[in-house]
Amino acid sequence: MKLARVNQGYIGLVFRNGDYRKFIEAGLHVLYFNEEVQLYNMSLVFNAPVLLEILMKDAALMEKLQIVEINDSQLGILYKNGLYQSVLKPGRYMYWKGLVTYQVTLLNLQEIEVSETMDRKILNVPEVRLQMHVYEVEPHEKAVLIINDQFVKILESGIYRFWKNENVIRVMKADLRMQNMEISGQEILTQDKAVIRINFNTQYKVTDIMKALLEHKDYEKQLYVIIQLAIRTFVGNKTLDELLENKDNISESVLQNVKVMTEKMGVKIENCGIKDVILTGEMRDIMNRVLVAEKKAQANIITRREETASTRSLLNTAKLMEENTMLFKLKEMEFIENIADKVGNISISGQGNLLEQIKEAFTAKS
Q: 31 in helix, strand or coil?
């Protein structure tokens, strides 16, 4: 016979010739010489030294143990005295009762959505995050949830989590803010066969995400093509001169042509218009020559108009001087004064009136 001591917080498993016989708790115990004791800390996970099925035959021992089984479609969250400890993968786990309180929360990975009541701290544990799809819908967005190719619901702004399993999850998002689309470098042939390049700008908003995301594939690409065709139709029915004179009308024409189609797509065009009309190299040279010719013609017309007005003014002045001798004298003196301004020295000799001599001098020179 021999003595064996089990300290507080421990449990001993007694084996006789290698076979399990019983368990002993804290205290001093008498054992046979062919018996051995293996001590286990009751605050730690219990790892059975023999098959669990053998230990399970001891009902009293089973009362001391908490057995947790986690299958392949589950995860376990282990808490010790209410505090998170670790994530348990599929398997069998055993904990001693009495000294420490162990609690295991099972997560069912076969479910679709992660429960909103789950502890936020657990959601950020790497082992748990690896088992989830996480989608964020921004405040300016809405989204549609599709599970196994079936529409489920519309998602408002927020964070959504789904378990990774055989279910196929898709979240399709749409931005509800005002969007800008630029259609650049469109080379188009006008009605009179002139090649021009147009840059067109469009502002739009998504008004119905069900139509935009579910009823139409790549609604943005389709919107681009619709507007592009509307621009080409408008330009193709106008001559170059008509287009340049009325280019602001293109926005109204495009809006009218695409309104019905964009409404079916769940999109509303708020504003659109031409940013630039660019002529090709040869066409630009031709237009420059036409512009120069037009400006020269306008300049000639203005010059002729001024010459005509000047001649008419001279004729009216001559008629007045012919009818009024005093006016003629005044004009004559003005004429002499203008000439005198351009003469440096004047030499006068002889008798007579000074003014008459100056007049005769200039009259003779003229």
A: strand
